[in-house]
Amino acid sequence: MRPEPSAASPSFADAARFWLKLGFVSFGGPAGQIAIMHREVVERRRWLDEREFTGALNFCMLLPGPEALQLAIYLGWKLHGLRGGLVAGLGFIGPAIVLLLGLAWLYARFGHLPAAAGMLLGLQAAVLALVLQALLRLGRRALATPLHIGLAIAAFVGLELLGIPFPLIVLAAGLIGLAAAWRAPRAAEGAAPAQRAGAPLRVVLGGLALWLLPLLAVAIALGPQSLWSRLYLFFTQAALVTFGGAYAVLGYVTQHLVQQLGWLSAEQAVAGLALAETTPGPLVIVLQFMGFMAGWNQPGGLGPEVSAILAALLASWATFLPSFVFIFLGAPYVERVTRAPRVGAALAAITAAVVGIIATLALLLAQVVLLPQSWGGGLGWAALAIAVASGWMLERRGLDLHWVLLAAALAGLAAHGLGWG
User: Fold this and answer.
1) 327 with 77: CB under 8 angstroms?
2) Tell me: the pLDDT tens digits for 354-390?
3) Which of 106, 165, 209, 393 is deepest in the core (most CB within 10 A)?
4) Do 84 and 161 belong to one domain?
């Protein structure tokens, strides 16, 4: 179904150029990307109004996956239907996919050279400050009741100490939030949106076919139990429970790929997050880097480069495809869904649990960045100083992220050259 165009709707070609440009300049994480879209689409170009934008953002916050990407897909759909959503989403993530593939290859080939190691030291320290900042901000917003505080603590203990799978934690938190709001009044139903018969079924079948094709090709060519088949299935699972953004899912993915499967090291995972912060697009693109390094470390008979690129593209396909399917399925029902108080209560409980999950990532980052040789090797004072300075520049000075990352990389290079890192 194609929505009614706005009076100020652009031509399809003008919109396509805008979405591609957005893909190259969308730095700053989801908050910065959403702010850019609001400024350009609502304030400057007036393609949509404030109410439409806010309703779309609220809907995207309910879904697993990168909300900024989903918002771009929805806005493209709102302007030009299915083709508009496809162009908006692909334009938003395409540059990031290409850039991070190049950075991942440079890291795999040259990451142990002194200059690269020094810059990575600074970037990793800055990322630690970023994650701690996100943890504090989300905690202040999400932990408003004793129930939500308890869910955050339980999620941290369950994931870090008891080894409870991330999807079960998310599911349990959502059910608890739903049960807590069971007596809440239902939202007014309103008129059902007009939609062609069979449109949702076509979206589901099309998405399923697009998901199955890579899996069948890899299973036939390389085996159903090969690294690439297993990696594709795992990243699909991760995409379906990615509530709370990249920091939350990275904690889960790192625990599974590093601690359980040993496909890459914790240092490589942290380096991936640092490099992903330097690229435009959704931060969850870090999962592509983790797929790349898993393929590089276990090339099988393909060779490191071919194996890594195949694994990276499979990880990206599995990570981003569900976002397109969710938006094309749910876009006609945005207003009805976002008015449901029980849905909001379940999401609030999941968000509280995500605070605990991000805390596990912060702990892992602190161990890798500040204690690179474990407790016996002493504290990494240079990394600690860069992390503190990065946090100060972000929180107190309000500097743009790209300047903070540049300063951190240069400081790490200088510290490494002086033998301090």
Assistant:
1) yes
2) 788 778 878 877 877 787 666 666 777 888 888 888 8
3) 393
4) no
